[in-house]
Amino acid sequence: MRNPRHGNLAFLSAVLRVIGILLIIAGFCHAAVYFALQYKTAPSLMELVVGTVGRLMRSLLTGVLAMAVAQAFLVLLDIEESVRRTADAVEGKKTVPTPRME
């Protein structure tokens, strides 16, 4: 029997992981397009490199942050399951596992 208690958190975690990966990929594409379009019109090479690296770092940070939040949801699910199993063991009840999407 599946426990529907926290299924939405597991689904949200999976969605956030996908969003994080897509943000990182989009960031690389955005940085490459910015570099290609600004290459001939940039005042200096240093400004072009700083602008490209800034865009790349922003997308990497945002993507990693989204994936970290997704992992935090899974950690919270694991903590809840551990506490519930301990409480059920003390009371002598059968434990129902928390659903996880991996």
What does this structure look like?
This protein has 102 residues and is mainly alpha-helical. It has a domain at 28-85. It is built from two helices and no strands. It has helices at 7-38, 45-91. Helix 1 (7-38) runs antiparallel to helix 2 (45-91). It is rod-shaped and about 70 Å long. The mean pLDDT is 84.
Distance between the termini: 18 Å
| Strand percent estimate | under 5%
In percent, how helical is the residue content?
over 70%
Order of helices and strands: HH
Structural class: mainly alpha
- Multimeric organization: single chain
Give the integer mean of the pLDDT values.
84
Number of strands: 0
> Count the helices. How many?
2
Shape: rod-shaped
- Give me the Rg, rounded: 21 Å
Low-confidence stretches: none
Largest sheet: none
What would the keywords be for this entry?
single chain; 102 residues; mainly alpha; 2 helices
Q: What's a concise summary of this model?
A:
The protein has 2 helices and no strands.
Topology:
Layout: H1 7-38, H2 45-91
